[in-house]
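2024-03-11 09:14:02 INFO worker-7 job=invfold-0412 stage=load source=structure_tokens
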């Protein structure tokens, strides 16, 4: 074997490795740019589906249930009874209008209660829940939490609060495979989301974040108690006119 043959065999893998490392270095930047574009597009275009919807449909197919279909029917915020977005804020994120995606006081309170062994609800904001439901997969890994935080920052930076609440009201899961205000109103009460009563809106908010366990249509004692608490909180944050204050 000549010296030139040996040099050629050494050079080819080295160049290939350098090319691979070059693209590996660029990959995080490409993903960052794509995520920004993704969030920017959905500021003006209503999402046709969410990652949670896609995952639920795939799960049904994987279980052999090919008749299952996700219920989802987009409605603009003006076409949803104002009591529903107000109830979502009252139930999930009462500091929604003031924080930048993360409610650090609520996080610290939840951490302290958990340290004492108390079972409490999480401190995720509506923006965090939207980032998870719309863009990500389910799970509790640190990688997923990191990506969720990044999307939360993007949503808060690139969308107005009104848009955040509008998309959340449309992609939140209110029953098994039932996503958004319109699909829930039609499935549970046979009417449009614009005609939801304050009591019905509170019951929808009350089943979050476990709509497979609790029912808004047939509320048990827990949902009834929580819905009553939500209705009281709606009055504390400004009533059904809360959404107008976000304009």
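2024-03-11 09:14:09 INFO worker-7 stage=emit residues=247
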């Amino acid at each position: 074997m000549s010296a030139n043959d040996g040099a050629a065999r050494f050079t080819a893998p080295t160049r290939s490795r350098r090319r691979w490392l070059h693209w590996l270095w660029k990959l995080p930047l490409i993903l960052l740019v794509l995520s920004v574009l993704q969030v920017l597009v959905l500021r003006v275009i209503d999402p046709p589906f969410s990652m949670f919807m896609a995952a639920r449909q795939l799960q049904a197919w994987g279980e052999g249930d090919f008749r299952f279909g996700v219920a989802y029917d987009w409605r603009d915020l003006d076409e949803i009874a104002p009591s529903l977005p107000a109830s979502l804020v009252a139930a999930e994120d009462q500091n929604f209008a003031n924080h930048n995606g993360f409610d650090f006081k609520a996080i610290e309170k939840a951490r302290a209660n958990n340290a004492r062994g108390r079972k409490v609800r999480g401190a995720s904001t509506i923006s965090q829940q939207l980032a998870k439901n719309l863009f990500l997969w389910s799970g509790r890994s640190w990688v997923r939490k990191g990506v969720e935080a990044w999307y939360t920052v993007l949503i808060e930076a690139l969308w107005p609060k009104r848009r955040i609440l509008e998309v959340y009201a449309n992609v939140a899961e209110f029953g098994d495979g039932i996503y958004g205000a319109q699909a829930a109103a039609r499935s549970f009460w046979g009417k449009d989301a614009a005609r939801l009563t304050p009591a019905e809106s509170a019951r929808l908010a009350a089943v979050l974040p476990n709509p497979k366990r609790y029912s808004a249509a047939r509320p048990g004692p827990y949902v009834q108690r929580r819905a009553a608490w939500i209705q009281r909180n709606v009055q504390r944050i400004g009533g059904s006119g809360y959404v107008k204050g976000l304009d």
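2024-03-11 09:14:09 INFO worker-7 stage=report msg="The mean pLDDT is 88."
2024-03-11 09:14:10 INFO worker-7 job finished
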